[in-house]
Amino acid sequence: MDRFWDGGRQIDVIVVPGRPPAHYRAPVAPTPAGARAKTVTILSGVPAFDWCYGCSATSAAMASGYYDRGSYGNMYAGPANGGVCPLTNTTWGAGECPLSATHQGYDGLGVKGHVDDYWVSYGSTAADPWIGNWTQHTYANCTGDYMGTNQSSLSNTDGSTSFYYASNGSPLYNYVAPAGHRDGCHGWRDFIESRGYSVQTNGNFNQYIVEEGLTYGFSFSQYCAEIDAGRPVLIQVTDHTMLGYGYDTATSLVYLHDTWDHSQHTMTWAG
Asked: What's the pLDDT tens digit per position in 194-251?
């Protein structure tokens, strides 16, 4: 983690490089029934994609796909499933999802996309393939483009996305990173706006959780409020991004898609 000062604020830079471990199989978390179900809220219709060229871009793609299946039908504009974002990425094959990272030959794309321009191999620090060889494509149609995922010109290795946090735990709204860098949350906002939608002024931010012992912090009750409002939340753990889309107040559980598979999983808040 790097730190620097920006306008009187101390800012932390966290690079998220996570990818599935070999032969990973996490236990599936069923939705509880009966009395306990009264304490549980889970958003329905949230896609589950396995890892597609970066866990952060994949998690943002799942959230964008959820919005596409609701009131924001231009998040995904490809031909699959009649133009409505599928609930899994099996349509394109394991490790492929045009809403996360466009790829020539997938989803009807006849020109170079994100994967063609920016991907070498997981963890690669080499210059992106387009540099010195052809003109990179114009950002379009995928979260990875706008979030800076995989892009060496934005200081990310293959598989990585960078996020910026206020060191004291206060929310860092729509942060514009220094030249040559990109905050993933700011980039996700750019993606949403590229699809023709607006984002509230304080509608996107990075924030440490209150359990980190900082002056400020995002709480479990705030997370629950986001879910109640119909907004999935990117959950950051060490070296990995997941998508939270539900909760259980009785046990402080977060229901999530972990980008490793298409199943429902849980973790304890701050666990």
From this structure: 999 999 988 899 999 999 888 899 999 999 999 999 999 999 999 999 999 999 999 9
Predicted pLDDT of residue 214: 86
Residues β-bridged to residue 224: none
The answer to whether 107 and 100 have CB atoms below 8 angstroms apart is no
Q: Please report, for the chain, how many H helices and E strands are present, in that order.
A: 5, 10
Contact 247, 254 (CB under 8 A): yes
Write the DSSP assignment of 48-96 as a string of letters: B----S-HHHHHHHHHHHHHHTTT-TTS--SSGGGGSPPSBSTTT-TT-
Residues 6+ apart with CB under 8 A from 44: none
Q: How many CB atoms lie under 10 A from the CB of residue 171?
A: 17
Beta strands in the chain (DSSP E): 2-6, 9-16, 40-42, 161-166, 172-173, 205-206, 233-237, 240-248, 253-257, 265-268
pTM: 0.95
Nearest to 66 by CA among 253, 247, 227, 254: 227
Structure tokens at 39: 């304490």
Residue 33 has pLDDT above 80, yes or no: no
